[in-house]
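Co-fold these.
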Amino acid sequence: MLHQADPGDPSSPSREQLLIAVARDRDQEAFRALFRHFAPRIKGYARQLGADDSAAEELVQDVMLTVWQRAETFNPALASAATWVFAIARNRRIDRARQERRPELRADDIAPFDDVPQPDHEVETARAASRLRTVIGELPPEQAEVLRLAYYEDKVHSEISAERGIPLGTVKTRLRLALVRLRRAIGGEA
Amino acid sequence: MTRTPILHPAPELLLDYAAGSLREVQALLVASHLAYCPDCRRQVADFEAFGGVLLEEVPAEPVSVGLLDAVMARLSEAPAPPPTPEPAHPIRSLLPGPLRRAVGAEPEALEWVRIVPGIHVSAWALSVGTASACLLRMGPGSRVPAHKHTDCEMLLVLKGGYSDEHGRYAVGDVAAYEPHTPHHAVGDRDGECLCLLVQDQPLVFTGPLGWLLNRGIRF
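Predicted complex below.
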């Protein structure tokens, strides 16, 4: 059975396996394990973006219910569990906080021969995530900051530039340098 | 038709889109470009992976004691909605998916407003905050009148192509114009050109017909 995810225990299920158990078996215990892991992080994400305590918990509920309902759309060859949950949290937050729609590309919007994941892509996805984590830790602080601001301040780069008094050209240069490193870490060409 | 775009949205737009900070109007252009562009799809997927890493690292905030039970109680009451309730589209749409869903109709079914002979903008528009989007149609060889603009302007080519003093743009390409850079778009001679036009501020046309053109392009 897939229960507690303990990262220190190699026999414990990964969060990807937990999501698949929810999709396949409607496994409530697997869902509880996912909740215990992700709920405090989703709340932290919402708080970083300025939500108060109760709005943050509403977002948590909303996102976790969406996780339950949409689990079968999770594809471990395309994204890690954390990436998939991040995308849901981002979209639900845009809906709730900004009351805007998020224009999304759907799988059936693109020609079927595009983007076919390679067989070993699942392993690759996990490796890329760990490389990313390392690279983010090694970024010069000013580069890491312009990246994080996009995720945590709900501001586009021209707003970041205006508010911090950093010329837009400088913001873009920092960002591009950071992006080059990220691309290398992910294994793509810079 | 299978050409992949060579002119892309700026990398910071892709990041802002993936992070969720990009506003709806600009996000519509980016999402529409993604339908044509495997490279940018890969980039956005990478930025989302970065979002996943940040989610793992964000300072966790303990949730209320009863929250898990509250969610568990709602699992059964929340039936899974049908995955994507979009009707089948056996006919090839001219518009990429995100734009098709935003417009809700094919271009030929829309109302068009003539700006000058050969140049039309759609009555359909999406306005959020200071930004707005509409469709722009250039007849074969037609010229968009000279105009200056006070904020950013972007065009995504959906059909045909056009040129200006900076280059040539074909299906899937994105052209971005900084504020106060006059440019002169001319539709290709061999057919109509259809674009998604995104502006951050209303255009101000120059020239003797300026006041009229301004009325035509703002509704």
